[in-house]
Structure formats: C-alpha cells, structure tokens
Amino acid sequence: MDFSFTPEQEAFRMELRRWLEANLDPQLRVYDAMDERVAASREVFEKRRAWQAKLYAAGWAGIAWPKEYGGRGAGLIEQIIYNEEYARARAPIVPGYLGIGMCGPTLIQYGTEEQKRRYVRRILSGEDIWCQGYSEPGAGSDLAAIQTRAEDKGDYFVLNGQKIWTSAAQYADMMFLLARTDPTAPKHKGISYLLLDMKSKGVTVRPLVVASGHAHFNEVFFDDVEVPRENLVGPKNEGWRVAMTTLSYERAFVGGEGQAEAVRALIELAQRVEVQGQPAWQVPWVRQRLTALAIECQAAKYTQLRSLTRQLRGLPPGPEGSMLKLFGSELGVRIAHLATELLGPYAQLGDALPAVPEAPRWQSRVISCLQFRIAGGTSEIQRNIIGERSLGLPKD
Known about the structure:
Layout: H1 7-23, H2 42-57, H3 76-88, H4 97-110, H5 113-125, E1 130-133, E2 149-152, E3 156-163, E4 174-180, E5 191-197, E6 203-208, E7 217-228, E8 232-233, H6 239-253, H7 259-270, E9 274-275, E10 278-279, H8 284-312, H9 320-343, H10 359-368, H11 379-390
Parallel strand pairs: 1-4
Antiparallel strand pairs: 2-3, 3-7, 4-5, 5-8, 6-7, 9-10
Helix pairs in contact: 1-3, 4-5, 4-6, 7-8, 7-9, 8-9, 9-10, 9-11
C-alpha cells in the first residue's frame, strides 16, 4: 500500500495551511469542533458566518462542489487533505455546514434549475444558513414514522406538525424538511422533501438547553405554514429517495472525525495531572488506556482509507460508513470516560483553573458525550445496518 501523496497534493496541502495560518483569527479557534459546531451565542455565530464568507471568497468553501456551482471540483484525496489541515488549524465548523455538506449536494443532484440559481451560491457564501427538519418526537431512529403533514393546496403546501433535535434552528434562515403529503400511502411512501423559509408565518423555534448549558438543539413547530410549491425538491410523494441522498452525506460528515485530536489532548493532560499521587503519565494503566485509544484512532483512519479506496475505484459504498459512525461514536464516549478518570472532580468544573486551564473543554465533552451515540443515526440503528446488510443476520 502507498499512503504517500503526490507533489501536487502536497502543494495543495501547503497552500491551504499557509492560507489558514494567515487568515484564521485565533479567537475563532476551538478545542472540539464537533462539540462546538453550533455557536453558543449570536455574536459567535455572526463571527463564524463572516469566517465562512471569507472562506468562500478565497475559494475554500465547499471545495468538492462542481466548479459551476462555486466549488473547486476537488477530488477525494484533496477533500481528505482539506479536512486534515482544517482540523489541524483548530478552525470552527462553519455555520453553513448542513447546507454545504448535505442540502447543497442534494439540490445539485435533485433540485430544479431555479432552485439551484436561488439557493446554491448563497449556501456556500453563508448568506443562507440551513437547518435539517427530519426528526420528530415519535420519529427519530425510525424516520419514516414522521407525522408532520403538508397538505397540497395547488400553488402551495400547508404545513402542520413538529420537528425536534433541530441543530442551529435558532440561527437558521432556511430548513430542508420531510413532511407527509399522502397519509394513506405506505410508510416509506407519500413523503415529500420541502424547503422552508424560517421566517414564514406560523414557524416557532424553541431552544432545548442540554446538560452542558448549551442550546445545540431546538424544537420547531409549524402552524398552518404556507410553503410555495416551487420549494418542493424532487417529485411529490417521492421525498424518501431524496432524503436518503441527504442522509448519505450526513453519514460521511459524522463518521468519527476529530477523535484523534481529542486523544492527543488527553495525552497532554496525562502529562500534567496526577493520579494516585503521581503524574498520570507514569501510571501503567493510564498509558495502556491512552495507547488503546490511539490505536483505535489509527484503526478508524485506515477504515476511512478503505472507504476512500472503494470510491476511487468506482465501487458502490460498502459497510464502512456505518462502521465508522458506530466506532467513532463509541470511541468518543470512551475518550470522555478516561478524561473523567484523569480529572476526577475537576471534570465537573466549567471554569478554567491554574492546574487545569482547559477544564471547561473536558466538562463539555464529559457531559455531552452520550450525544455521539444518537446524532446522525443511533448506535443501535448502525448495529442493525451492519448486522443485516453486511453480516446477513435476521432482521431485528
């Protein structure tokens, strides 16, 4: 196997690294990009929106998008390099990550020419920030159980219902959502994919404050909201196929990236704190646990490369997507548990201390780690997918 990069690819890496070093405001850097993916305040959100606009102006937003839609048409290897360098710089996930990573590619594939002209460029520039309206109180892992209704009135649909766990809805300009347009159809039929202006009359957003005190998520209510017919993506009642395309991009986005950086931070922490009256790094079980986590990060890296190889060869997707999602989620929880053991009671503190200046980072990770098993598809669902589709086990 050859894991080296070509001279052209290394030149791409250095161009991006130099640009990030010259343009990323140190105040925008984050410890844990995924955990901090939603801005904690409107002020931080607007700074990150300006950062996305800066990336777009320089050609560094949505690099994998086709050139005709504002991207670079970058290949898979360039995307891997971009992700590595962006994480290395500790740059924040841009506010428009759902639009760039999920909605935009879906519109490019399924949208009308008018929809593409109206929305695609604004997604990249950050002028429009999007949220995802999939999950409902009775339809989380079983997405096809959605009950939100969109009644066809000819020139528009009338939307009624509720979404939940809607990341960044409090900041969003637009939502891509699923609604049932034929309640008499079989479970996976009669669903349509709609685009909603969040400023529409009848839309109510209520933030959900999680244990860490941060409002990542929201409830969103629809009360006779009118959605223009031109905001229907794909054929009416065939939104499930469009939705699965969007979810395929989400699986790629939440496949456990960033855990290696957390393990490196844990190693640094172990070199400064004490366990059992001595530096943690000198305690054998601590080194063993850290080594195991580092090995798991390498296993995830090579599994990602397996998936990349399949794509480069033009092969259909394998089981790697669900494997990475499941493995990355559980790895994130294990990292948080070890941080708790190293810090003891300090893991509960939300304020920086001389002994542990990054205590707030670990408190947030420890309190929020169980979300890894839920966001982007629960661990139970991923196990079912792997068991049924890859191992041929009976359906659960």
